[in-house]
């Protein structure tokens, strides 16, 4: 329907039906608001007419400009100069302009222009008070006329907005210009340098400083650089310059009108002889360490990776470089599809010193490709590559196509920019209708759709751009379901001519140390010549692109171009760009009639005039010149790995501008096609990854160019996804097993890679080595050998030979191994055996593995009679080899146990004969002791018919895998006794008739896996169990959880019962007693719970007639079982007695009764508590305690909750022996409980008390006294009845006067008086508790005895000294007061052995006996002090000092002599 809007415009979030006129509407609204303020504030008609005159004159200027090209405008200057033309300052101009000419301004710039115009209007209008008064009296009629004029003017602005924008650049805006450029400097090292410049331009330019074309970041080098910008003066200060600051510096100024750069060089000089020793010497080449050969290994590699748009992905590898030099780092580079990647917002690269990482921050389909890590050293380089696939993000609308990719900008100039892209691989199930191109100005986030209708051609010229501004672009695809997600944005591109772009960016040659600036003087007044080489570079049904070369003359000023067209067959030329001349030598023409043919020509023009036209082009028909590619040819898939397939195809024929191919794959029968690549590939071969192993796939391919996608090719043949078959890798580890005069027996190891198919055989070559020079190779065997050992014959004795081996499979013969070591062909004569060979490791688990080998070919002098196995950790030295078995094993296999989980081991085997142990075999490959996830063991199964089978399951099965069963590690070939059945990933070996011949070790190994294997040891004991289980399955019985049993119930009832493990609802039971079937009745109660399988028969009581055999007979289908219980003799009598007792017990428990009868308990404090537990009591129930018939305690009122009665005996003794009784009674009856604590009962109680005492004893300790050595221990409580025995050397001690024992409080001691060395030995104290007793021992010998004896001697000597030391026994007063003239007589007793020496002191000075003071010491015991006539001079402090060899002692007294008169005076 006419006027209807396409759905992709209705529903798309970016659609705005008026987006092309948004700027125009915005300018008109701003002009209206500005005019309103202007009219409201105008004072007179003359002011209004001045405003109109300004606008009309501008319009007139526009009309005149159509007659000739716009001349180049002179550059404005804002410098203030004096008479001598010296710069003295700046002039700030006041700008005037119309609001509608500000098209393309930012919001801030528009506001500034608008505010400036309003200010100027207010300044002119409100100059005087009279004008303000007139503005208030403005008539309504004049206001209406102004409004009409304003509407008319707005209409003209709306019609000619694009014309004004192109032909009248606003005088406010101009590109940056360097008023003062930075100048070059040469400075000495460690000086500071300052570069400064002055820049003009509107809007204010943004200034950036560069060093050797790298932007300077002051934050990255704090203190090094300082940037300042003030009043259009910009400076860069470099602090403390060093030699590295010598460089070319560039300052770039940029605004919306363009970009301009200026250059300056800085040279830093160093004084001669000044060299910083800390600086490293310059490197010549990659590294200065000559003679070092670096070995590079890339490990821990990233594999083929899959991501989705919008995700983050990291690729990393560990790089090992040997030798490792810390100061040397390799060059690490990343490539995608052989294109070097550089760090950006899309790619983050990191090198940690040993690991290289590439992070794709936001995946897009452009990131898909082959990624290569290249590590370069001076010795060469190593690379590793893997493919990265990027899938489409989920569509925002179901069924919408994938996003386009690889958006680029071509042919950018001021008039248009051509945007190209690549079509997506996914169309969402519906054909893509076309594409929408969006643009966004750099620095903003507003996206504008560039085309109203979708374009199918993957190339589109975008027009309507603002010259000098930078843009980014994106593309969206659309089908009938909806719009795709937008593509990744393009790189920014400026809308300006290439020549202007190069000039403004100031691109420079590499730094050479000097800058040469040249400028060509324009030539004026010359009309330009003809443009050259005009041609149609691109033609579609939507547009045509022309390109040409400027005229050959140089120095032409302001050259522009007019493009003219002519319909083919006519001579009527029509100018295409009548209003706007073209500045760039390219032009895009739109609105041409599709299907018509046109010729084109171009004229040059400048201010001097319009030149002659160029030669016209050939007639060009408007339409798509580029055709959609033809479908690719035959598609051939081939196997690659178990998850990938190699797809190749024939290229599309006669295709132009081919972009690449898209490949799709589908599982056979699913009819669901999935893209294998989301980025076109250029070749005709591609590896499709991420396929399902074992599935069959078909593939198809289609080509793509800018015109679109081709039809799909024919589907390929189906191919199964599994690893491709290739020839095997070379064998290795060639050794000699035997050597005779003319032959040698070789052995080798299987290749690490067998090529995906079983090895069918090996071929051996040999060559003779003469004087170290090898000869030609000769074939040793024409027919392949299947074993990994072969005898090479027809050799010459005492000659040297080398050997090589090649492996073969169904894909062919592989490359030969490396030549072996040189071996001498001479006969072995040693007596011991040669080395075993062909060591194999199976059934690897975390703690064990199975080692197999083959016996040596060379037996030695005697046959081999056993083998020894050696083991060591893989990284351990040779000295770490140790034997696994101490006794030689005769078998050629052994299970190695007790391995440490996670440890890696290696093994070797030695053979022995009677002469001794022979050579060691080759060492196995290292094997870690780990149970791999998903590992299964062999499971034994017995079916319902009793057939026994061994079952093995493998989870890692490959299509070529086979199950190989062995007995005693020899493959089972005879299937008559043991048949093999394999289905899927499970295999089982079924025994036809299990017997003793089948005893052995059974194993199963799965080929083409990572060692999947398991073993099962069928021993004689296991065989017996299996035969029993097999018999039970053949002849089924009803399994019983429990056999027939009998138990007593309350009231003395008897219950016979059993439980069947499983029985159906049809099961039956017969109850038989002495061959008589019993039936339900008063005496017998039968129950059969078929859910639980419990069968029971209950009898109320047993009588003598019930003695006999009870049998329960079960039947469930053909399965039967029975269980019998014989109750005769003492067994029956005991059961009958117990039944009667239970019956009585039931009656007893109807009243108050004892739940637990009277018993005793000994506490850790050795208190005895008699206790019992009672039940069924009430308030009226009483409890009476008796001892030997006498009541000792009564509990008349017991609570219902109280259930335990206690009687505590604090310190038990013999008097507490007796018979204790408790009686419970109330109106319902009574119950009695007795406890006999006499004789043996009391003895048992005391033994328990003694046991507590013994356990509380401390360890036996040693101490010394002045009499001897004492051994002692402490107990927490001592009882007089406790019996202890002291032992010396395990014999009881016979006590005497010299050796005594005793008890002090809680201490038990043994005293040894006057000990000697004979008393040394082991002492023990034994506590007798009637059971085993408890001993505490101590060793009185060695150092312990020496220390104790020495302490005894010391104490003894101290005691002797204490007894015999000199003493003053007494007799001396403290103070003696005596009258002058009197006689003083004092006597004291002296003791000590030997007799002490006596010394008298007065006031601490020795005195001697004289006539005045008589001192005597008589009989060695009595010392006397006598003064016959006391006078005042005798007053003082006196001391007697006695001394012998054991010590000294003194006695002190004070003598005070007074005169009688003085005494009387004092009394008064």
UniProtKB/TrEMBL annotation:
Its main location: cytoplasm. Residues 1-71 are annotated as: Disordered. SMART domains: FN3 (SM00060), IG (SM00409), IGc2 (SM00408). InterPro entries: FN3_dom, FN3_sf, Ig-like_dom, Ig-like_dom_sf, Ig-like_fold, Ig_I-set, Ig_sub, Ig_sub2. The keyword RNA-binding does not apply. Residues 27-51 have a biased composition (Low complexity). One of its GO terms (molecular function) is structural molecule activity. Residues 176-267, 309-389, 928-1019, 1152-1238, 1378-1456 form the Ig-like domain. Residues 403-498, 530-624, 631-724, 730-828, 835-934 form the Fibronectin type-III domain. It comes from the Eukaryota. GO terms for cellular component: myosin filament; sarcomere. It is found in: Cytoplasm. Residues 16-26 have a biased composition (Basic and acidic residues). PROSITE patterns: FN3, IG_LIKE. Keywords: Cytoplasm, Immunoglobulin domain, Muscle protein, Phosphoprotein, Repeat, Thick filament. This is Myomesin-1. It comes from Lates calcarifer. The gene is myom1b.
């Amino acid at each position: 329907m006419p006027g209807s809007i396409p759905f992709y415009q209705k529903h798309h979030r970016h659609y705005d039906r008026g987006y092309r006129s948004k700027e125009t509407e915005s300018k008109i609204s701003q002009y209206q608001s500005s005019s309103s303020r202007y009219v409201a504030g105008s004072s007179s008609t003359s002011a209004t007419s001045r405003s109109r005159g300004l606008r009309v004159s501008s319009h007139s200027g526009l009309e005149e400009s159509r007659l000739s090209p716009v001349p180049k405008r002179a550059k404005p200057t804002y410098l203030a100069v004096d008479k001598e033309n010296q710069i003295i300052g700046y002039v700030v101009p006041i700008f005037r302009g119309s609001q509608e000419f500000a098209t393309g301004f930012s919001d801030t710039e528009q506001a500034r222009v608008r505010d400036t115009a309003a200010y100027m209007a207010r300044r002119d209008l409100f100059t005087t008070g009279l004008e303000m008064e007139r503005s208030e009296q403005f008539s309504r009629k004049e206001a209406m006329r102004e409004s009409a004029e304003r509407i008319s003017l707005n209409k003209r602005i709306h019609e000619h907005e694009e014309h004004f924008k192109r032909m009248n650049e606003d005088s406010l805006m101009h590109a940056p210009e360097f008023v003062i450029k930075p100048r070059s400097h040469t400075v000495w090292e460690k000086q500071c340098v300052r570069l400064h410049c002055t820049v003009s331009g509107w809007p204010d330019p943004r200034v950036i400083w560069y060093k050797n074309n790298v932007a300077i970041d002051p934050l990255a080098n704090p203190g090094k650089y300082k940037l300042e910008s003030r009043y259009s003066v910009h400076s860069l200060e470099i602090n403390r310059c060093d030699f590295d600051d010598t460089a070319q510096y560039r300052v770039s100024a940029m605004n919306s009108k363009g970009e301009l750069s200026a250059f300056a060089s800085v040279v830093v000089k160093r004084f001669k002889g000044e060299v910083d020793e800390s600086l490293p010497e310059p490197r010549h080449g990659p590294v200065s360490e000559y003679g070092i050969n670096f070995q590079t290994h890339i490990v821990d590699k990233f594999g083929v990776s899959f991501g989705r748009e919008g995700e983050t992905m990291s690729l990393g590898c560990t790089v090992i470089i040997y030798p490792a030099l810390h100061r040397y780092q390799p060059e690490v580079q990343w490539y995608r599809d052989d294109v070097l990647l550089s760090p950006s917002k899309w790619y983050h690269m990191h090198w940690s010193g040993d690991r290289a990482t590439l992070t794709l921050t936001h995946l897009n389909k452009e990131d898909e490709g082959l990624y290569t890590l290249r590590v370069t050293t001076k010795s060469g380089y190593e690379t590793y590559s893997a493919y990265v696939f990027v899938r489409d993000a989920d569509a925002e609308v179901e069924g919408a196509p994938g996003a386009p990719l690889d958006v680029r900008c071509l042919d950018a100039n001021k008039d248009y920019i051509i945007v190209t892209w690549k079509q997506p691989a996914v169309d969402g199930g519906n054909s893509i209708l076309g594409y929408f191109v969006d643009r966004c100005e750099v620095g903003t986030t507003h996206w504008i759709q560039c085309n109203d209708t979708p374009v199918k051609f993957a190339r589109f010229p975008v027009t309507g751009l603002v010259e000098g501004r930078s843009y980014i672009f994106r593309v969206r695809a659309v089908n009938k379901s909806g719009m795709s997600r937008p593509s990744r944005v393009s790189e920014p591109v400026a809308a300006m001519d290439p020549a202007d772009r190069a000039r403004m960016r100031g691109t420079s040659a590499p730094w050479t140390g000097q800058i040469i600036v040249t400028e060509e003087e324009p030539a004026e007044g010359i009309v330009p010549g003809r443009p050259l080489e005009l041609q149609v570079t691109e033609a579609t049904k939507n547009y045509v692109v022309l390109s040409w070369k400027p005229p050959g003359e140089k120095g032409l000023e302001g050259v522009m171009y007019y493009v003219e067209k002519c319909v083919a067959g006519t001579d009527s030329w029509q100018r295409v760009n009548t209003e706007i001349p073209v500045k760039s030598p390219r032009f895009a023409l739109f609105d041409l009639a599709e299907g018509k043919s046109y010729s084109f020509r171009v004229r040059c023009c400048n201010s001097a005039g319009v030149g002659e036209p160029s030669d016209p082009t050939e007639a060009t028909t408007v339409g798509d010149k580029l055709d959609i590619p033809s479908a690719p040819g035959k598609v051939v898939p081939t196997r690659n790995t178990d998850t990938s397939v190699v797809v190749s195809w024939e290229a599309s024929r006669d295709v132009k501008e081919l972009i690449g191919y898209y490949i799709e794959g589908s599982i056979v029968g699913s009819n669901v096609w999935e893209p294998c690549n989301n980025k076109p590939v250029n070749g005709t071969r591609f590896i499709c990854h991420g396929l399902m192993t074992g599935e069959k796939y078909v593939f198809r391919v289609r080509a793509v160019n800018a015109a679109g996608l081709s039809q799909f090719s024919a589907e390929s043949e189906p191919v199964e996804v599994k690893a491709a078959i290739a020839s095997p890798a070379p064998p290795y580890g060639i050794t000699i097993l035997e050597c005779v005069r003319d032959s040698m027996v070789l052995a080798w190891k299987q290749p690490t890679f067998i090529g995906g198919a079983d090895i069918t055989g090996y071929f051996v070559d040999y060559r003779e080595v003469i004087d170290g020079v090898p000869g030609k190779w000769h074939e040793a065997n024409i027919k392949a050998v299947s074993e990994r050992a072969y005898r090479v014959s027809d050799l010459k004795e005492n000659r040297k030979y080398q050997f090589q081996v090649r492996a073969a499979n169904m894909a062919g013969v592989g490359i030969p191994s490396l030549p072996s070591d040189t071996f001498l062909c001479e006969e072995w004569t040693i007596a011991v055996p040669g080395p075993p060979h062909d060591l194999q490791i199976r059934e690897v688990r975390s703690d064990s593995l199975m080692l197999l080998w083959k016996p040596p070919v060379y037996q030695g002098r005697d046959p081999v009679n056993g083998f020894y196995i050696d083991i060591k950790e893989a990284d351990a030295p040779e000295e770490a080899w140790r034997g696994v078995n101490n006794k030689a094993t005769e078998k050629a296999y052994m299970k190695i146990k007790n391995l440490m989980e996670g440890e890696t081991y290696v093994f070797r085997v030695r053979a022995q004969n009677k002469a001794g142990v022979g050579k060691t075999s080759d060492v196995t490959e290292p094997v870690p002791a780990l149970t791999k996830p998903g590992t299964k063991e062999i499971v034994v199964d017995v079916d319902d018919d009793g057939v026994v089978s061994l079952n093995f399951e493998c989870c890692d099965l490959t299509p070529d895998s086979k199950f190989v069963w062995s007995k005693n590690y020899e493959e089972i070939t005879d299937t008559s006794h043991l048949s093999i059945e394999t289905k899927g990933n499970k295999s089982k070996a079924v025994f036809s008739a299990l017997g003793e011949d089948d005893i052995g070790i059974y194993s199963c190994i799965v080929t083409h896996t990572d060692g999947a294997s398991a073993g099962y040891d069928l021993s004689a004991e296991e065989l017996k169990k299996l035969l029993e289980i097999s018999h039970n399955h053949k002849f089924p019985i009803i399994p019983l959880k429990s056999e027939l049993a009998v138990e007593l119930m309350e009231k003395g009832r008897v219950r016979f019962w059993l439980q069947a493990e499983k029985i159906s609802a049809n099961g039956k039971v017969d109850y038989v007693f002495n061959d008589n079937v019993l039936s339900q009745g008063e005496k017998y109660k039968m129950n059969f719970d078929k859910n639980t399988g419990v069968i029971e028969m209950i009898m109320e009581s047993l009588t003598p007639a019930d003695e006999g055999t009870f049998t329960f007979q079960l039947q469930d289908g053909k399965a039967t079982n029975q269980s019998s219980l014989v109750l005769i003799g003492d067994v029956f009598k005991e059961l009958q007695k117990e039944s009667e007792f239970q019956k009585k017990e039931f009656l007893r428990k109807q009243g108050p009764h004892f739940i637990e009868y009277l018993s005793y308990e000994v506490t850790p404090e050795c208190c005895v508590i008699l206790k019992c537990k009672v039940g069924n009591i009430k308030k009226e129930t009483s409890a009476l305690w008796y001892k030997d018939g006498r009541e000792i305690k009564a509990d008349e009122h017991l609570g219902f909750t109280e259930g335990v009665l206690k009687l505590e005996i604090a310190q038990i003794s013999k008097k507490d022996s007796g018979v204790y009784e408790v009686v419970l009674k109330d109106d319902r009856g009574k119950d009695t409980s007795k406890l006999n604590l006499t004789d043996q009962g009391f003895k048992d109680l005391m033994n328990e008390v003694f046991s507590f005492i013994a356990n509380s004893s401390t360890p036996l300790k040693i101490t010394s006294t002045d009499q001897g050595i004492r051994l002692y221990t402490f107990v927490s409580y001592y009882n007089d009845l406790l019996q202890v025995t002291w032992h010396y050397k395990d014999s009881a001690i016979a006590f005497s006067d010299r050796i005594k024992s005793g008890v002090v409080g809680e201490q038990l001691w043994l005293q040894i008086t006057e000990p000697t060395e004979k008393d040394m030995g082991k002492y023990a104290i034994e506590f007798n508790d009637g059971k085993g007793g408890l001993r505490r021992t101590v060793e009185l010998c060695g150092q312990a005895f020496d220390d104790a004896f020495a302490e005894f001697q010391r104490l003894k000597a101290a005691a002797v000294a204490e007894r015999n030391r000199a003493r003053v026994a007494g007799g001396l007063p403290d103070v003696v007061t005596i009258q002058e003239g009197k006689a003083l007589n004092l006597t004291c007793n002296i003791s000590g052995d030997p007799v002490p020496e006596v010394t008298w002191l007065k006031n601490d000075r020795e005195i001697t006996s004289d006539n005045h003071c008589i001192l005597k010491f008589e009989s060695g015991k009595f010392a006397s002090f006598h003064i016959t006539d006391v006078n005042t001079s005798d007053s003082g402090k006196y001391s007697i000092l006695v001394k012998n060899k054991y010590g000294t002692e003194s006695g002190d007294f004070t003598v005070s002599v007074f005169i009688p008169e003085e005494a009387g005076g004092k009394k008064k």
